[in-house]
Amino acid sequence: MKEFSILIGGKAGDGIDKAGMVIARILNRLGLRLYVYRDYPSVIRGGHTFSIIRASSGRIASHLSKVDFILALNQETLSLHRNRLKKDCLFIYDSDQVKIDPPLACGIGLPIKDMLKEENAPVVMRNSCVIGGFCRASGIGWEILEDVFRKNVARETDLNLKVARRGFDAANELVKIEPLNQAALPLITGNEAVGLGLIKGGLDAYIAYPMTPSSPILHFLADAAEGLPLNVIHPENEIGVILMALGFAYMGKKAAVGTSGGGFCLMTEGVSLAGMAEMPVVIVMGQRPGPSTGLPTYSSQTDLHFVLNAGQGEFPRFIAAPGDAEEAYYWSHVALNMAWKYQIPSFILTDKNLGEGTFNFDISSIKEVVETKPLAWNRQGQYKRYLDTDTGVSPLTFAPEKDAIIKVNSYEHDEFGITTEDPAKTVQMQDKRLRKGIYLAEELEGMRPVNIYGNRDSETALLCWGSNKGVCVEAAAKLGLKVIHPIVLWPFPVKQLQASLRGVKKVIAIENNATGQLVTLMNRFGFKVDEMVLKYDGRPLSLDELERRLETLSNPIGKVS
Fold first, then answer.
1. Which residues neighbour 543 within 8 Å (Cβ) at sequence distance 6 or greater?
2. How would DSSP label each residue in 509-554?
3. Per-residue pLDDT for 554 more than 80?
4. Cα 471 from chain centroid?
5. Is residue 177 in a domain?
6. pLDDT, tens digit, for every residue of 157-174?
């Protein structure tokens, strides 16, 4: 088997997420390429949770609705997902929790309760038993399982291995997963890639109040901070988060914050302060369905226009929406660099599908970011914090500085930072701030803000942004289509989008929202889209679902060259 999927499910608190990652690491040792999708409710215990681990010989970044194996820790898992199985009987289950009707008696049932009792092991180790059963059923050797457990199961490793061995010995081989002759690539989540990109960019401080789906960045960087010159802070609320980040910027320290829609609502006045005071800050915006609390642990692409227009007044900003782990790493670094080069807010738009999805990560494929040091004061003459320059970017110096008075002002101000209501100075300073956006847009033209995949000669193109990249690229490869994937969404890459659409007669937009937010933004610049495939139930499009949706359009894909 070189292309297959495994679903492991149970209730919240059963350790399904950890178990899914252990399975992924076992398969990764075989040289397979992986993508892991997590689905869990907004409860700590009791709700149904599952992970789909998809494995392939080539790079992937999407999941399939149909699976080859089901590992069921409770009855609900088999009841909800058995119709996903491609073939009957390829499931492994806790026979104390799952009851199989006699006519359907198949699969591998493990008497886990007795096994745990005999090993004096806690209930949470049920997943280790099922993993052991899966490895035996799929022909994966014990030595690989043991090595992965020893490297990735930190607590009570030996006891977990005893339980896994019981499951391994109680199962029988059903299929054979063969190792591939290719090197393993590290496994990483999109959130971890964002954190690593920020660190690579010289991050000094990360400030966040926990909010799904960006909370894992806070946890990841808090762990990483022990070996780095990095401050990681969890303030009392999101207002404190954004203001603290601006305080770090005032002192010359590179800061980033993370949040989701509800938290960002509280940050918007601080974002506007950053625009007026020309304070660099990076904001990681993990989108989830709204309005209000919405679906806290699910995903959407519903906040593009919110981020684009957040904060009163007019000021330049940078917005990037990466589509996979490598892009999350690279563009997070770019966002931090742009924030400090142009003294503006920079946004990294993510969602749960990207942030909490797990990908193989090939750092050798990522080009280096050309770092630009912030424009520094030359210490000549009296310091003007808001000196009006050709580019609009003013030279910086930071406290404590005995030879300069460094003013930061939320009111309109002159070049020194002194409050003014003079009409001429108001126009001068507003033009100065907006001028930075012009130079930012020009710089981005040379950075591939729009990527093209698939059949470049196809007259039909799938248009997508953010985490829909993976599923669209795979669907396009099967259907012979072109994929257009803009990463930079502001300043809007008009020229690059025009170039990518040359020769295209039919454009189909793929978005995880109900209104087509990218399409609406494109209309503003005169671009037209022929069809839309929209999904807004909080779940991502699977590869087979997207293919079906494309076939049901008013002018099906098969009728267009």
1. 62, 63, 64, 471, 474, 475
2. EEESSSS-HHHHHHHHTT---SEEEE--SSSPPPHHHHHHHHHTSS
3. no
4. 14
5. no
6. 999 999 999 999 999 999
152 and 38 Cβ atoms separated by less than 8 Å: no
For 496, the domain range is 450-559
Which residue, among 143, 134, 147, 123, has the nearest Cα to 175 in the 3D structure? 134
- Classify burial at 34, counting beta carbons within 10 Å of its beta carbon; exposed 0-12, middle 13-18, buried 19 or more: buried
- If asked whether residues 147 and 250 sit together in one domain, one would say no
CA-to-CA distance for 314 and 429, rounded, in angstroms? 12
Domain end residue (candidates: 365, 397, 425): 365
Both 19 and 165 in a single domain?
A: yes
Annotate 198-227 with DSSP letters as a single string.
Answer: HHHTT--EEEE---TTTHHHHHHHHHHGGG
Structure tokens at 149: 């457990």
Give yes or no for a cis peptide into 291 (omega within 30° of 0): yes
Residue 310 lies in a domain: yes
Query: Is residue 408 domain-shared with residue 534, that is, in the same domain?
Result: no
The reported pLDDT for the residue numbered 194 is 98
Q: How many CB atoms lie within 10 A of CB 488?
A: 24
The structure tokens listed for 164 are 């896994």
Rounded to whole angstroms, what are the CA distances from 256 to 222, 272, 316, 429, 481? 13, 16, 18, 26, 38
- 3 state SS of 50: strand
Domain boundary pick from 107, 140, 170: 170
Q: How far is CA 518 from the centre of its chain?
A: 18
pLDDT tens digits, 275-308: 999 999 999 999 999 999 999 999 999 999 999 9
Torsion from C-alpha of 291, 294, 299, 303, nearest 10 degrees: 20
Q: Residues near 257 by Cβ (< 8 Å), separated by ≥ 6?
A: 206, 207, 208, 241, 242, 245, 267, 281, 282, 283, 284
Torsion angle (degrees, nearest 10) of CA 32, 333, 243, 421? -140
Same domain, 123 and 192: no
Exposure string over 519-552, b if 16+ CB within 10 A, otherwise e: bebbeeeebebbbbbbbeebbbbbbebbbebbee
Same domain, 353 and 406: no
Are residue 102 and residue 81 in the same domain, yes or no?
yes
Q: Give dist(CA 352, CA 142) in Å, integer.
A: 33
In eight-state DSSP terms, residue 376 is: B
Cβ atoms of 112 and 95 within 8 Å: the answer is yes
CATH number, residue 501? 3.40.50.920
Q: Where are the alpha helices (DSSP H) in 343-459?
A: 352-355, 423-444
Burial class (CB in 10 A: 0-12, 13-18, 19+), 250: middle
pLDDT of 438-455, one tens digit each? 999 999 998 999 999 999
Q: How many domains is the chain built from?
A: 4
**Residue written as tokens 């303030």?**
235
